[in-house]
Please model this.
Amino acid sequence: MIPIPPSLAREFDPVTELARALARELAISALLGVLVKTRATEPQKEMTSLAQKRANVAGAFALKGTVRGKRLLLVDDLYDSGATLDEAARVLTRGGATGLVVLTLTKTIHTTD
Model:
């Protein structure tokens, strides 16, 4: 279980807390702080095109730990365009993750170019 890091630093991060609770219920490890933000990004919901969303998160994640050989459940709260999840998946796959499943709580209804 690995959460998407938040766009903004905050005291309570719902995605991390969701990942922690799910991991506990499923009796699996939560890899907190392994996938990290390398720079600040704007909230994806403020972007209007897929190109903007992809550019916003390009290179925004790195690994601070190992995922080599692990099958992961990547958790986020919202699926918008998929740009954030695609970028995180790219980093995790390059880091050696052998399997990746994505879980989000909800999906937006607007579309992007």
Helices lie at 14-26, 50-57, 83-94. Residues 33 and 64 are 7 Å apart (CA to CA). The two ends are 31 Å apart (CA to CA). Residues 14-26 form the longest helix (13 residues).
